[in-house]
Design brief:
Layout: E1 2-7, E2 14-22, E3 25-39, E4 46-53, H1 56-70, H2 80-91, H3 97-115, H4 125-137, H5 147-166, H6 195-204, H7 211-220, H8 224-228, E5 235-236, E6 241-244, E7 247-250, E8 258-261, E9 269-272, H9 275-295, H10 316-330, H11 338-350, H12 355-362, H13 367-402, H14 408-413
Antiparallel strand pairs: 1-2, 2-3, 3-4, 5-6, 6-9, 7-8
Helix pairs in contact: 2-3, 2-5, 3-5, 6-10, 7-9, 7-11, 11-13, 12-13
């Protein structure tokens, strides 16, 4: 088959001459192809149309007719729910799996129920604003939906509609002009363990099957998922460092599997542990050797620092339930696993660790996050330092008198 392609101006498509042989006889015809304004609802891409004719001029006329018709395209009939499905599938491929799940859940709960059946071309700023306001006032959906949840959900919608506009499905983004509820940045309430409770907790976890896990959590402030996804290849016992580069995540769907994902902020950080932490990690190595021996052929090697009895991932639920039973036993049942992280941070601050170092150790995206969570602890420390300075200067006259020098205050009185 012979092809002679003739390019035409952008938007007019292209034409080519095609010659085929049938039963030893050659036949020639002309073929034209043009990108239409019709949408493939499975892929979200525009449909390419192919036409044929006996002559090049005939095909050219047909292509011009289609092109002229597309200059004033009919409004897209695709519905918002259909576009969002396309957007999730084709435009979130480079987003973390956990983030995609979060986006999908926000769309499913807050966008689809109220706006899913509306055609893209019929979406208006007023329509979307009415839904936003309804959620904020509690007149639609479940009561007490937080301002941040509403803002997050409709920020996702804004991104999806931006892409729809880029694809030419809509001429402008109807999210522009809407007013989202303001999220008041308030001081987070944290519940670190008190010193007396830390002593009880450390004593209670001695010889527990997760003793090393809980102790490393207290000594490093690492998140639960970061600990459960930690590999030995990221631990250097000689330098006493841990490279935190991934975390264990669970699919949010019912019965979802565990999988390794990047850290919360996609940031890799190095955490230093002291001699005590190195000793505990060496204990964990010995414990794993015993676990391997007991499991025999059932053992599956994944190089995990904190595996289950078969070498696989420990479940969040198992770790959490054991922790809660220990806390119940020592009289602080409200303490969560994440509070071990807050306990580490509070101890670090009281031990003189500066805010920037603490931010890096905890893996916060910026220092504002650290200040928002632990600022009041620093404030308390600053107040205490001011009182210490006062005490020092208040004691100076007494020291001078003790040294035999006249008290200058007596001169003022006299």
């Amino acid at each position: 088959m012979e092809n002679n392609k003739h390019r035409r101006p952008n938007g007019d498509g292209n034409i080519r001459k095609i010659t085929v042989s049938r039963n030893g006889k050659k036949y020639t015809y002309w073929q034209g192809r043009i990108l239409t304004d019709k949408i493939n609802r499975k892929t979200g891409e525009k449909i390419r149309k192919t036409i044929t004719g006996k002559t090049q001029a005939e095909v050219a006329v047909k292509l011009r007719e289609i092109a002229c018709h597309m200059e004033e395209p009919e409004p897209s009939t695709i519905r918002l729910s259909e576009w969002l499905a396309i957007w999730e599938q084709n435009y979130l491929v480079h987003v973390k799996a956990s983030t995609r799940q979060l986006y999908h859940r926000r769309i499913l709960l807050y966008i689809i129920p109220e706006l899913g059946n509306v055609k893209l071309c019929d979406l208006s700023t007023a329509m979307i604003q009415e839904v936003i306001s309804g959620y904020a006032m509690g007149t639609i959906g479940k009561a007490n939906i937080g301002a941040k949840t509403i803002k997050d959900a409709f920020s996702i919608l804004r991104s999806a509609l931006d892409q729809a506009m880029n694809q030419g499905y809509i001429s402008k983004n109807p999210m522009n002009g809407t007013k989202l509820p303001s999220v008041r940045r308030s001081q987070r309430k944290i519940h670190p363990m008190r010193e007396e409770d830390i002593v009880k907790y450390v004593d209670a976890i001695k010889f527990h099957r997760h003793e090393e896990l809980y102790m490393i959590a207290l000594l490093t402030g690492m998140r639960e998922g970061e600990l459960l996804g930690l590999l030995w290849e990221n631990v250097d016992l000689f330098t006493g460092t841990i490279v935190v580069s991934q975390q264990l995540t669970k699919n949010k769907d019912k019965g979802g599997d565990y999988y390794i994902d990047s850290t919360k902020n996609d940031k890799i950080r190095t955490v230093h542990v002291g001699n005590k932490g190195v000793h505990i990690l060496k204990q964990q190595q010995m414990k794993i050797q015993i676990m391997k021996s007991d499991a025999g052929e059932a053992w599956q090697e994944h190089d995990l620092v904190f595996p289950n009895t078969k070498g696989c991932f420990l479940s969040y639920r198992t770790v959490y339930d054991c922790h809660k039973r220990i806390c119940q036993k020592i009289g602080c049942p409200e303490t969560r696993f994440h509070d071990l992280r807050h306990t580490y941070a509070t101890i670090a601050i009281k031990s003189g660790v500066d805010m920037k170092t603490l931010q890096e150790n905890l893996g916060h995206s910026d220092i504002d996050t650290t200040l928002n969570i632990y600022g009041h602890v620093f404030e308390s420390m600053r107040k205490g330092s001011a009182e210490k300075v006062d005490s020092y200067f208040n004691a100076i006259p007494q020291k001078a008198i003790a040294a035999g020098e006249p008290d200058p205050r007596q001169e003022l009185i006299g």
